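INPUT
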Amino acid sequence: MTVNDLAKIEGIETIFLADGNQEFSTAYTGDLLSDVMGNAEEESILITVQAHKNTIAVASLSSMPAIITCNGRDCPLDMIEAAKKENISLFTSAFSQFKVSCLVAKVLGC
Amino acid sequence: MQEIPINTYSSPTVILDLIYRLKVKDVMSTYIDTVTKETSLREIQKIMREKKITGVPVTQGKRIIGIVSMDDIIQALDKGYIEDPCLDHMSRNLIILEDNMPISFAISYFDRFSFHRFPVLNKEKELIGMITSRDITSRLLVEINREVENLEKQQNNNRPTDPDAIDGELHSYTIIRLDFENAGYASTQIKKKLKKAGVATPIIRRAAIASYELEMNIVVHSNGGELLANYTPEKLTIMAIDRGPGIKDLNKALTPGFSTANDWIRSLGFGAGMGLPNVKNVSDDFAIESGQKGTKVTCSINLAPKEITENDSK
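OUTPUT
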């Protein structure tokens, strides 16, 4: 599955698309960044409510190609800038982490 | 004609050096068969056949007075004077080389004259050797081989060192208290450095986790400090040093889930109580000391493990 496929999911909006062809095979849902760093598999996408710049740093260090922020949290401008700099795709959704996880899981066929 | 296909004036410098440095006496054969003017052409023919040579110098004492070549023998057989002493039939028109001449002379002589060999004389005009084009070419090959070997060695020594290689550098990053704006910078730099050096991805990931957690610890919990990264080909050592206030209970700080972070920090996703346990978990060596003046965490990660260990999946 590619990052482009995420953009097609209804209820998920694209804020910034870095490399749409980047592949991912799983996702990690979490709001505790240390937990994400310690446990997320490489090349998984991140589903979180943490809509701030540090989430980009965590995703970048953990080699995650995309982030979906949930509950309609606004992504501040410095977060979007950081995403562009680190080449990480950024999406947002009005749904909760659980709902977004379900939508992504469906597409992944889990 | 025994041409030696080496240009004696515009060849590569290495070759020119060689043909001017090498002297005729370095290349000539000194074990030579000589005959006297009384020796019959028949006997000389026998020597040629036995020694597999094509020319024999005729000497008087230590002086050369002529050469009998294969051509002279053929003529003698043809015209029927093979039993004659060589005196009347030898070539007297001699082109000689001096022992101290550079072999460049010999090379141009072989090109200019149709002789297969030249007698070599010393200062006293005594015959001390014979030189053939084969002597020159085989010696040149040996010398050229040696030169090429030296050139290759030099080239290898001059090869610029890999700018991405890890070689004992120490990088330091200043970390400011509650500076979430720049948090993660040091870790990102460390990750980039390891990536450039070609370190295996699972190891880079561990280094990224350790450095990010330590960096965030300084941002979130301390009065500010420094992150030091020391790279050697074998391992990366990260040191996080802060200016206090110190950790009250180290055991608790190392317990997963224990945190002293306030709600605001937690709302940002930090302060989950996983920081230090995560660092310890991904490091090959881990040490922590803390007092009121500050905390110092040292951890290292082996960059070139003999085999990827179970640690790498953590």
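end of record. Chain A has a mean pLDDT of 93.
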